[in-house]
Design goal:
There is one protein chain. This protein is 5% helix and 32% strand. With 154 residues, the protein is mostly beta strands. The protein has one domain: BH3618-like (Roll), CATH 2.30.290.10. A hairpin with a 6-residue loop joins strand 5 and strand 6. It starts with a strand and ends in an 18-residue tail after the last strand.
Length: 154
């Protein structure tokens, strides 16, 4: 086991369980190894912490939690970089941004392709896509859960 100091305090991790980004992340080309930071809260978001720079961490999520039709399939070159043969061995994740006004967006235009069996990932830029780099979360319906309106007081 190894230890690093991070924005979350001291983290102990198994070097064999780091996620390797052979090309780094967009804008962070030199950062190649990350660990998943255990979440203290239940939910669809999680952090990855750079092992190479203790000040760098990203929030990720599975975008299909919010956009059911979102699907990214790696091409052959991407599969080779991930060390997989079958694109089904890969999941697409999105970088989450929380803006100063507390709004939340997902980067659906540049997903992180993650091959869990190989502990490898790459961030790719989708071309000719309807997806955006700052896609707002869908609005939550304010309708009552049982489908009925509030009863009139009388």
């Amino acid at each position: 086991m190894k230890k690093i100091m991070s924005r979350f305090g001291e983290i102990e991790y198994d070097p064999q369980k780091t996620i390797h980004f052979p090309e780094g992340l967009i804008g962070f080309d030199g950062l190649r190894n990350f660990v998943v930071v255990p979440s203290k809260k239940e939910g669809p978001l999680f952090w990855i912490q750079s092992v190479d720079d203790s000040q760098v961490a990203f929030v990720l999520t599975d975008p299909t939690n919010f956009f059911l039709d979102y699907k990214v399939v790696p091409d052959q070159t991407e599969c080779t970089k991930l060390g997989i043969e079958d694109p089904a061995e890969c999941v697409a994740l999105s970088v989450v941004t929380v803006h100063p006004d507390k709004s939340i967006t997902l980067n659906l235009q540049a997903p992180v392709l993650y091959a869990p069996q190989k502990s490898r990932a790459l961030q790719v830029i989708l071309e000719k896509t309807k997806y955006e780099s700052r896609t707002p979360l869908p609005a939550v319906s304010s309708a009552p859960a049982n489908g009925q309106g509030a009863a009139a007081a009388g």
